[in-house]
Design goal:
Layout lengths: L11 E2 L8 E2 L2 E5 L1 H7 L13 H13 L7 E2 L4 E2 L10 E2 L4 E2 L4 E2 L4 E2 L4 E2 L4 E2 L4 E2 L4 E2 L4 E2 L4 E2 L4 E2 L4 E2 L4 E2 L4 E2 L8 E3 L4 E4 L8
Parallel strand pairs: 1-3, 4-6, 5-7, 6-9, 7-10, 8-11, 9-12, 10-13, 11-14, 12-15, 13-16, 14-17, 15-18, 16-19, 18-20
Antiparallel strand pairs: 2-3, 20-21
């Protein structure tokens, strides 16, 4: 996506370095500490980590150190000019974000996902490929909506919640609750100690 947006230099930093020195065709130049000492060299930084908890922690650390956090929107995505994207969010190919939707920082709207009008997503939310949020859905910080899931209009999903793959959510989901199925039903009361 960064290449399609004409970013000329793309470098990765990974805390598994030096065991990992490549991420596909791109070099891994160091770990988080290395990146912090090289921030002045970069026009923009994005956290490319799927784990919501880790992504938010890295974003906070980068902000604290003065990084220029950018959002990336794939050229094949559609984002209403009346929607707002939080700093450090990414919108993948085929995704649609409609008017008056509000995304917190560090959100991922994955391939072919849709976020309809007036939705409000907290920081660090991940909407997986092919998932669909109807109008005015609220999703709390750090929640994850699985691949192919759909959420009925006006439903609230609490923070740290997990919506399973293909789930059909027709009623609100509590904080740190996991729901699966059609209609979606809880499988755990609380997974707060687990990372999303």
């Amino acid at each position: 996506m960064a290449e399609l947006l004409d970013w000329q230099q793309i470098d990765f930093y990974d805390d598994a370095w030096p065991a990992i020195t490549q991420n596909g065709p791109w070099p891994v130049l160091g770990n988080t500490a290395s990146l912090m000492s090289a921030l002045a060299e970069y026009q923009g930084v994005v956290v490319a980590i799927g784990n919501n908890t880790i992504r938010l922690a890295k974003l906070a650390e980068l902000k604290e150190n003065g990084a220029n956090l950018v959002s990336l929107v794939h050229p094949a995505a559609v984002v209403s000019r009346h929607a707002s994207l939080g700093q450090g969010s990414v919108v993948m190919a085929g995704a649609v974000i409609n008017a008056c939707a509000q995304l917190g920082e560090g959100c991922i709207i994955n391939t072919n996902a849709s976020v309809d009008h007036d939705c409000v997503l907290g920081a660090g939310v991940h909407i997986s490929p092919g998932a669909n949020l109807a109008g005015a859905v609220c999703v709390g910080q750090g929640s994850w909506v699985g691949i192919g899931a759909c959420v009925r209009q006006l439903v609230a999903i609490g923070q740290g919640a997990v919506v399973g793959a293909g789930a059909v959510v027709v009623a609100s989901v509590n904080d740190f609750q996991t729901v699966v199925g059609n209609p979606a039903k809880p499988i755990t009361k609380n997974h707060q100690d687990q990372s999303c």
